[in-house]
Amino acid sequence: MTTKTTTHEFQAETKKLLDIVINSLYTERDVFIRELISNASDALEKYRHESLTADEPFDGHVPLEITIALDEKEHTITIADTGIGMNRSELEHNLGTIAHSGSNTFLTHLAEAAKKDVSLIGQFGVGFYAAFMAGKKVRVQSRSWDGSEGHEWVSDGSGTFSITEMEGLRRGTKIIIDLKEDAHDYAQKWMVESIIKRYSSFVPFPIKLEGETVNTVQAIWTRNRSDITEEEYTEFYKFVGNASDEPAYRLHFSADAPLMINALLFVPKENFEMFGFGKMDPGVNLYCQRILIDQHSKNILPEWLRFLKGVVDSEDMPLNISRQALQDNALVSKLRKVVTKRFLKYLDEEAKKDEEKYLEFWKTFGIFLKEGATSDYEFQKELGKLLRFESSKSEAGKPVSLADYVLRMSPEQEAIYYINGPSRVAIEAGPYVEMFKKKGIEIIYTLEPIDDFVLSHLGEFDGKKLVSADRADLDIPQTEEEKSEEAGDAADQKLDADSTETLVSWLKETLKDQVKDVIVSKRLVDSPAMIVNPDGYMTSTMERVLAASRVEKGLGFGGDSKKNLEINPKNAIIKRLAALQKTDSAFAADVALQIYDNAMIQAGLVVDPLVMVERNYKILNRALGE
Ligand SMILES: Nc1ncnc2c1ncn2[C@@H]1O[C@H](COP(=O)(O)OP(=O)(O)OP(=O)(O)O)[C@@H](O)[C@H]1O
Q: Would you tell me the Gene Ontology cellular component terms (predicted)?
């Protein structure tokens, strides 16, 4: 039989990655053992899952395990598994390119990570190529579970690798690393053992180091809660989450009905999406009777819970389900619903126990819950309880819950009100809150543009409608006191009914290109005018966001619906405008347009700055006595 050897170039990206691994990452060297054990464990999981449905897998009797052998004289470390193995083309493809997510993300974000914190590198994992952190030469001997001939893959990491057929191999993969001069320590048992204890103690297969099993192979999530120590939980979190911090929250629960579930979920401390690392992969794995069915499962939790780490195990899942079938499996969606509701309830309980701590969580991960509230109707009720916003009755920087708001509502108040603005100060200086302030009605400040989408999707909370204060049809009934005030003193300070009517019809004509309608305000207290939305659904902020995205997509400006302008007949400028309109309607028209532009700006909407500034100078000129 001829021994066929072929030589291959590494893909360009792989070369780049190898260069970084070999030349820059030596301070993080220990992780190469974790990466290779993790690959071995993945290969064993894959084999275990596949073999359930296979008739006669190759070497079906061989025990599932990882063995590590050391040679202090030859300076080698050998990590072997009895997993799924690789055939020739898999060796060539899997160990020559970086088509897989982990290393790609690693490469893309390496520069940013390095700038911030080198320890973040561990978050991504370098995968197989980590072997070259410690190895000057790496040999991979592998034979696939399909029973095809085995092969040896060899490389020194410098640009090429070779693959040679090899007889006599058993199923699985053996990686033999010739250690670099300054990495000989990795052939010492105490050293390797301490690394395994640190990173890999929860690997679900026996790890035998020089013949001795060094991990405890037990699915921690199936154990009794009272038997698990805090340290074990934290160690397990670090293991499943590939994390180096401690979890902020932990939920370990079991249920028998409607489904058998054992779940162990962790909330990390950090949100890596906030560091600009792009969208993360989901962090929860789906098991069935302790067998991994779906790693980083996209199905077991909604996408907006991708920040969670952990495990969901259900005995009701069919063991032989394929990964594709998970996607629209009724049982999986039932599981998802039960686990999600349980987790959201847990968060609500934790918030009640310790609001401070919850607010820390909210600051870091609130954005994910908002994403859920805008995209997922199924959990809106639960999500509504978890939202936090600043309000006219909250301290700055201390958001409150909608439930707290409802508790403070007076019996007459029917709706929950909110208004968006770039900051607390800007909102409080604007026209929309004047009446709320005067009447002592609490109003929620939605400081992020997404907040309006969240509240408008939510629609109501606890049976109370959620209403944006920039709606045209906002109707808050006057109290008796306010009515008599209107009829008494205040009436004298107001523009009389006839002049108001004349002014309104003149404004309608003058601003007919800008506004849909001009209305006498029942709610403005001090400001001359404000913009309100006749469309009951969209708030000005939502419109601004959508307009910006239109521009971004190159769809141009426009498409905005016309607004209503509310004017305040008690305001001095409005009163003077009524008089001016009769004597100098051209100048009055400039003032009207300026009032409109000002109101648009206060609503956070866009005006044409060139036209506005030119008009403004014209008005200033007059004011200075031109
Ligand atoms: N011990 C092994 N047995 C079988 N296949 C393996 C083994 N090690 C690696 N592979 C294959 O090589 C591929 C590349 O491995 P690598 O560790 O670089 O990336 P990954 O495991 O896919 O991603 P990551 O490590 O970032 O999760 C794997 O996806 C797997 O198919």
A: cytoplasm
